[in-house]
């Protein structure tokens, strides 16, 4: 395909999505839920075909030498397709954010009535890699919140993505899904990303889900807002007034409960007054899961052979593995400065029995989620009670932290009166 | 200056602003208000110097042949400086949005307490043209909401901007303003805009205030979020069930009360069933202020010599002048389609006594402000009761419509518990 042909095809999808978004914005919650249930049913009906198409991706992946973990993420079997369908039904059961009144007031001097109401954003582009379930998860959350989607998945899952998107479209249309409300870009070249990123005349938001390279590329090119889900370099600060057993338990959970995710702990900061007592306890517990410790000079002195020396690079690193960097700090100010300098603004925790210290920490740390005596692993849309999530935003504009249905909406002011004019 | 020197200097300002933002985020409402009042006092104390510096801009502007309107926008006299100072005191009197609890809940299954709290955004870049009062207005709103600012004004007001910024800094520092909380880029070359737009490691948001060319340039270059204040191509739809006298009054007010602003009416859409009665009445009223009417074929038939023929271009045009385009439509659907296609998503109104038609219109129109029987001229932070505004966003992400203190904040989740872990 020539660049011009790609552009033309993606532009056509943009134009169509805009029209679909308008139709979607007028659907009732009940209509959307019926559409979602019909999509889930169709996905189950197409189970065999989806698994078959997925097998093509798996074969291609094996030929390209993808690793075992990657192939596992890519693989769909009947149970996984059923889980995707069940996920859709769960979204159908959630409350519809569209139409919710955010605030309303009457201007006393003239009687005009101002109402702020949640409305859909419009057209959302999702650019993602590998996992084919994102095709459904993302499209479905966008649909529930009244938005049209243009999906652009990775080449490694193209057969699976096409099969899933086709099932969603076919199922949805049986229940009144507006045409082109969910579109999958049928090719996976880089140019299609560049074209999407430039078409702010139709696309209101772009969400890249994937590695840092993908996000960086989208940020550089995008003309419309981007919501980013960058690294989680999460910290725990163990204060002088911490319950040390609780601190060991929280650090162990935050680090090892699932090390491969963005809300896992990467750096432990320890107040110098309790370091000699706390660090050996912590090391003993971490040894149960063979966590490698990388400590600063002060920590090394206490931990001895149980740790290695940390390098400057360690404070910047999201290990996503059984590795933990450890630093002894003089006080809470030094801890807060370290977190604000090296953290990624994702999730950070203080462990302390001192309420005043805790409240100060919560104000000092400029992160999406700040914790007092709770594991960082709770940074998650499900754990927050949102019922689903499209990701955890490390941005500060529009959506921050766990991002679910409400975060996929905008608002509109509706002003009602009886002929009020400004005059003169 | 070489490009490298500009980059280095602007980067230094970015780094400094980030540190200042952290200090600002910890100030209490009272501390911020004392700073604001000290700034107002210093501005008054520096009145003579500011007017003197402004005279240099005026002289330069006259030499460069700036028009009368432009020179008037640029000019500062003692009364205008006092008005800027009074504006600062008004902002001091507004409620502090920072620290406000947006929501809070307890997770029943584990007892963790989740609180969503307003926090400052961080560092905000403001890029603006001509009017020197923006130096104060923007910096002060950002300060009140806990944000550091980097201001980059236009070359035509550079002496005035420097004098105002110096007074704000000097006054603020007397009352504890953190160093570098308000910084003005001391040069006005294009490169400084490019450098600002690229430094997302320190700057969280950029707001361009000025013409379409400036906004476009910032959108193309910016790596951080941009909040745009584009054109207002505002519409009024006069329904078949309209009170025609009210419709004349609303159209006249929306068009002529202040034609040079973004919430002024540009296009009038009229239901065909009442066009023959309404259009002559409307034309008669508009003639009082010599409004030029540009009508479609159907409107021309009724208006005759009182109107000229509208071209396709007219439906796209923000006149900001005593000109109004007029189109007769078959029904509300055609009106809504016209507005969603040609409008700029700013402010649009329906005039009708039919409540059901009005409610349908409010849902159909994808604009920041939609009105029923109210002049579009009310789209304004002051009129909404926000006490001030930094602009009217035509974006859908983060802030939409009149943008004031709350829209200059982000939020943070604070999670409190007693050692809760995720487990297994």
Structure description:
The structure is a homodimer of 424-residue chains. Chain A is of the alpha/beta class. The first copy, chain A, folds into 2 domains: 3-228 and 401-415, Aldehyde Dehydrogenase, Chain A, domain 1 (3-Layer(aba) Sandwich), CATH 3.40.605.10; 234-381, 3-Layer(aba) Sandwich (Aldehyde Dehydrogenase, Chain A, domain 2). The first copy, chain A, is 46% helix and 21% strand. The first copy, chain A, has 16 helices and 16 strands. The first copy, chain A, has a 7-stranded parallel beta sheet, sandwiched between helices. A 4-stranded parallel beta sheet of chain A has the order 5-4-3-6, sandwiched between helices. A 3-stranded antiparallel beta sheet of chain A has the order 1-2-16, with no helix packed on it. In chain A, strand 12 (347-351), helix 15 and strand 13 form a beta-alpha-beta unit. Chains A and B meet through helix 10, helix 15, strand 13 and strand 16 of A and helix 10, helix 15, strand 13 and strand 16 of B. Strand 16 of chain A pairs parallel with strand 13 (369-374) of chain B.
């Amino acid at each position: 395909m020539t660049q011009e042909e790609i552009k033309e095809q993606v532009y056509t999808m943009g134009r169509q999505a805009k029209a679909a978004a308008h139709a979607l914005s007028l659907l009732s919650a009940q209509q959307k839920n019926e559409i979602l249930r019909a999509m889930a049913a169709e996905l189950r009906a197409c189970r065999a075909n989806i698994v078959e198409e997925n097998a093509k991706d798996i074969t291609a992946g094996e030929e390209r030498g993808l690793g075992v973990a990657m192939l596992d993420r890519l693989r769909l079997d009947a149970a996984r397709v059923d889980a995707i369908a069940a996920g859709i039904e769960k979204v159908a059961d959630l409350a519809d954010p569209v139409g919710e009144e955010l605030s309303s007031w009457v201007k006393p001097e003239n009687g005009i009535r101002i109402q702020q109401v949640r409305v859909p954003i419009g057209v959302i582009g999702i650019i993602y890699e590998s996992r084919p379930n994102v095709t459904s998860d993302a499209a479905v959350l966008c649909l529930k919140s009244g938005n049209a989607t243009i999906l652009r998945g990775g080449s490694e899952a193209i057969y699976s993505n096409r099969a899933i998107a086709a099932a969603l479209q076919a199922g949805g249309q049986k229940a009144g899904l507006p045409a082109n409300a969910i579109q999958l870009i049928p090719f996976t070249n880089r140019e299609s990303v560049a074209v999407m990123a430039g078409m702010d005349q139709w696309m209101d938001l772009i969400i890249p889900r994937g590695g840092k390279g993908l996000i960086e590329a989208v940020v550089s090119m995008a003309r419309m807002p981007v919501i980013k889900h960058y690294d989680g370099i999460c910290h725990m600060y163990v204060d002088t007034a911490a319950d040390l057993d609780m601190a060991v338990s929280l650090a162990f959970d935050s680090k090892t409960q699932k090390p491969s995710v963005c809300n896992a702990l990467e750096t432990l900061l320890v107040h110098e007054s309790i370091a000699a007592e706390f660090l050996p306890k912590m090391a003993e517990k971490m040894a149960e899961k063979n966590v490698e410790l990388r400590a600063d000079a002060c920590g090394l002195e206490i931990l001895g052979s149980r740790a290695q020396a940390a390098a400057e690079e360690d404070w910047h690193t999201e290990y996503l593995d059984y590795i933990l960097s450890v630093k002894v700090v003089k006080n809470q100010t030094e801890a807060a400065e370290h977190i604000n300098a090296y953290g990624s603004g994702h999730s950070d925790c203080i462990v302390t029995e001192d309420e005043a210290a805790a409240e100060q920490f919560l104000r000092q740390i400029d992160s999406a989620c700040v914790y007092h005596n709770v594991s960082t692993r709770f940074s998650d849309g499900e754990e927050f009670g949102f019922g689903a999530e499209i990701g955890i935003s490390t941005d500060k504009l529009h959506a921050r932290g766990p991002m679910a249905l409400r975060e996929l909406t905008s608002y509109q002011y509706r002003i009602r009166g009886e002929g009020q004019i400004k005059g003169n």
